[in-house]
Amino acid sequence: MDWDLKEELRDCLVAAAPYGGPIALLRNPWRKEKAASVRPVLDIYSASGMPLASLLWKSGPVVSLGWSAEEELLCVQEDGVVLVYGLHGDFRRHFSMGNEVLQNRVLDARIFHTEFGSGVAILTGAHRFTLSANVGDLKLRRMPEVPGLQSAPSCWTTLCQDRVAHILLAVGPDLYLLDHATCSTVTPPGLAPGVSSFLQMAVSFTYRHLALFTDTGYIWMGTASLKEKLCEFNCNIRAPPKQMVWCSRPRSKERAVVVAWEKRLMVVGDAPESIQFVLDEDSYLVPELDGVRIFSRSTHEFLHEVPVASEEIFKIASMAPGALLLEAQKEYEKESQKADEYLREIQELGQLTQAVQQCIEAAGHEHRPDMQKSLLRAASFGKCFLDRFPPDGFVRMCQDLRVLNAIRDYHIGIPLTYSQYKQLTIQVLLDRLVLRRLYPLAIQICEYLRLPEVQGVSRILAHWACYKVQQKDVSDEDVARAINQKLGDTPGVSYSDIAARAYGCGRTELAIKLLEYEPRSGEQVPLLLKMKRSKLALSKAIESGDTDLVFTVLLHLKNELNRGDFFMTLRNQPMALSLYRQFCKHQELETLKDLYNQDDNHQELGSFHIRASYAAEERIEGRVAALQTAADAFYKAKNEFAAKATEDQMRLLRLQRRLEDELGGQFLDLSLHDTVTTLILGGHNKRAEQLARDFRIPDKRLWWLKLTALADLEDWEELEKFSKSKKSPIGYLPFVEICMKQHNKYEAKKYASRVGPEQKVKALLLVGDVAQAADVAIERRNEAELSLVLSHCTGATDGATADKIQRARAQAQKK
C-alpha cells in the first residue's frame, strides 16, 4: 500500500467499494473526548493506496461511510443527513432520511446494494429502522416497531428477498425479521442449544446466504431465508469478532466465512477444521463476488477459494490433463523428448481438448503475468495438435488478461479478478476508468478491443471534454481549441452536451464557443435559450431552416422581451417576421395588426380589417365601419381598385340590410350575383334590374342570371316574354341549353329556331332534330358540322340521314 497512514484503521471510519474499488478513511474524533476539537480529514485512496482526494470535514458527526454502486461516497451523519461525494472529493448532493431520524438521531447505519441500486438503512435512537432501497430515487420506508425493544440490538443487517429489502436484527436469543408491514420472529434451523445472544451476523455478497456468530462461539451458516442450514462450526472463541464476511466463488459448492478479531483471522466452512492466520496489523475485510480483500496499513491481499482448474493443474503429483500439458510445454522448451511422451499420454486418453481448456481457464485466475504466459503457452502448444479447436476462447482470454494486467497496475489501482471483470462488464470498467480520469488508458483499451466508436472512444472523449471545461485556470479560447482539435467530427460526440457542462460550471462564453462546433441546430438553440442568448439562438434557428425551431425561439423571445424590443428584433430578421405573422394570423390577430401598423404596411392592414369585419363583427354597423377602415388603408397604400371594391361591398351590405327590412328573406352576406338571383326568384325583377344598373352589371351577365333564375323557377311564360323583350346579348343557344337542362324539349324547340346560323346545328342536335340539323349542315357545307351531325346518327332511324350526309360529302368532293 502506498499510503502513509498516521492513524490506525481502528481509529477511523473505513469504507471500501467492491470490485477493487476505492477506500475512504475518516478519522473519527467524536469517539475520543480529548480529540474532539480537532477537525477530521476525509481521505480517499485507490485500492493500491494512491491518494485520490483529501478534504477537511466541516459538517456534523459521521456515523457510517459507504460506497454506492456508482462509486459515490455516502456519508451518513448523526442528524440523518446523507452527504454524497465523488471519487475525487467533489460534493455531489445531499438528502435527509426524514424528520423522525433528525429528532431521534442516528445510532447506526448500513449502506447496501440491491438490483435497484444502492440503499441506506438507519437505526435511530428510538430503536426504530428507516431505509431507502435506492438513494437515486429516494423513497423512505419506516420499518415496523420491534415489540419490547428497549435498547439497541446486539447486531443487525439488511437482507434482500423477493426484490424487497428487509431488516434482520438480534435481541438476546431472538431474531426478528422486519419487512414493510410486519415484524416476525424467526428461528435458524438446527441452531446449537444454549445461545443467549447473537454477537455478529453477515450476509453473502449475493444475499443468498447468512452467517450468525453466537455468544457460545458457534458460527451458524445457512440460507438467507433462514429455512435451510448449511453447516455449523464451533470456533471456541466467545469474544465478539470485529468483522465477519462470506468468502465464496460463484457456482462453487464450497461455502466459507472469514472471521476477524484483533490479531487473528479464521476461515471456517463445511470442514471440521478451520484455517487460521495471524494478523500483524490492524486489518479491514471487504467482501467480494469471489473472495475477500484484506488490507492493512502496509498490505492489500486477496483471500479466495482456489479455482478448480488451478487446483487440478498445480496440486502435487497431479496427473490432470492440464498439468501434463503444462509439463509437456516446459519440456518442449528444453528440447526434451519427454514433451512427446506427455503429449502421447494426453492424446491416448482423449483429453487434449480438456487440457487446453484447463490451461486457458487457469490463466484467467492467475494474477502474476509470468504464470499467465506459461499457462497460455501451454494452451497454444496443445492447440497445435488439435484439428478443430475454436480459437475464440483463447484469443478472448489473451485480450481479457491484457486489460486486467493494465488496470491492476500499481498506479491504476483496480485489482479486479477475472470473475469480477466478467461480472462488471467492459462498459462499466470503462466508466470507472473515466471516473478516475484515466482517459488515455480507457481509449487504449477501446482501441485494443475494437469497440464501436459510439460505445468506446467517442464516449470517453466526450467525458474528457466535460472534465476539460472544468479547468478554470485555462482560457476559454484555449479550452475550446483543444477540445475541437481532439474531438473534431468524431461520431457520437455532442458538442452541445459539453457546452451544457461548461455553462453549468459558469463558463458561458466557453459554452458559446463550443456550440459553434455543434453541427445540429436543434441541439444549439435550446442551450442558447437557457443561457439567455435568445438573439443568437434566433439567428441559429433561422440558419437551420427549421420553422419549428424558429417558432420555439420566437415564443421564448416574446416572453422574455418587452413588446417594442421584440418587434424591433423581428424587423431585423425578415424570415422570422414572416413566420411570426403566419402564427399571429391563426393565434393573435391583435398582435398582427400592431405589426402592420409598426411597419406602415397599409395593404396588409386593409386586408386584415376586411377579414376582421367578417370574422369578429356580427352587427352590420360594425362590419361597415371595419370595411371603411380597410378602404382608408387601401387608399393610403395607393390601391384604388381594392379601395373601390371595398366601398362597393359597403354599399351592397347597406342595400342588403334594406332589402331584408322591406322584403324579408335572407340577403345579408350574399354576393352581388346571388343577390340579383334571389330578387329574380322572388319576383322582384325591377329591383333586380335597378341593382344591376346601380352596380353596373353588364347586360350579358344580367341576362345569364335572369335566364338561370327563371329556368329554375320553371316560369316558361315569363322566360319567353324576357327573350322577346329585346335582342338577346348572349344569343339564344343558352336558352336552348337551359331548357334542355330542365328536361323541357318543347320550350327548347321554341328557341332553337331563333338561334343564329353559326350555332343552329348545335341547337337542333340539342333538341334531338337530327334530320333538320343535317339539312342545315349540308346547306352551310361545313365539314365540322357534318361530322358532328354524323356522330349523332344512331341505328336504323337515322340511317337515311347518314346516307344523305355521305352523298353530300361525295358531291362536295367531286366539285
* Backbone structural class: alpha+beta
Task: Flag low-confidence runs.
Answer: none
What percent of residues are in strands?
15-25%
Q: How many separate helices?
A: 33
Membrane topology: Peripheral membrane protein
GO cellular component, one term: early endosome
Family: Belongs to the VPS16 family.
GO biological process, one term: endosomal transport
What does this structure look like?
- By secondary structure, the chain is of the alpha+beta class.
- Among the domains are: 1-183, YVTN repeat-like/Quinoprotein amine dehydrogenase (Methylamine Dehydrogenase, Chain H, 7 Propeller); 187-305, Lipocalin, CATH 2.40.128; 313-535, no CATH class.
- Helices cover 47% and strands 18% of the residues.
- It has 33 helices and 27 strands.
- Strands 1-2-3-4 form a four-stranded antiparallel sheet, with no helix packed on it.
- The chain starts with 11 loop residues before the first strand and ends with a helix.
- GO terms for molecular function: actin binding.
Topology:
Elements: E1 12-16, E2 23-27, E3 41-45, E4 51-56, E5 62-67, E6 73-77, E7 81-85, E8 91-96, H1 99-104, E9 106-114, E10 117-124, E11 129-132, E12 141-142, E13 155-161, E14 164-171, E15 174-178, E16 183-186, E17 198-203, E18 209-214, E19 218-223, E20 229-234, E21 243-247, E22 256-260, E23 264-269, E24 275-278, E25 284-287, E26 292-295, E27 300-303, H2 308-314, H3 321-333, H4 338-348, H5 352-365, H6 369-383, H7 392-407, H8 418-424, H9 426-435, H10 439-449, H11 457-468, H12 476-487, H13 495-504, H14 508-515, H15 521-530, H16 534-544, H17 547-560, H18 563-571, H19 574-587, H20 589-598, H21 602-615, H22 620-636, H23 640-663, H24 672-681, H25 685-694, H26 699-713, H27 716-725, H28 733-741, H29 745-752, H30 757-766, H31 770-780, H32 783-792, H33 799-814
Helix pairs in contact: 2-3, 2-5, 3-4, 3-5, 3-6, 5-6, 5-7, 6-7, 10-11, 11-12, 11-13, 12-14, 13-14, 15-16, 16-17, 17-19, 19-20, 20-21, 21-22, 22-23, 24-25, 24-26, 26-27, 26-28, 28-29, 28-30, 30-31, 31-32, 31-33, 32-33
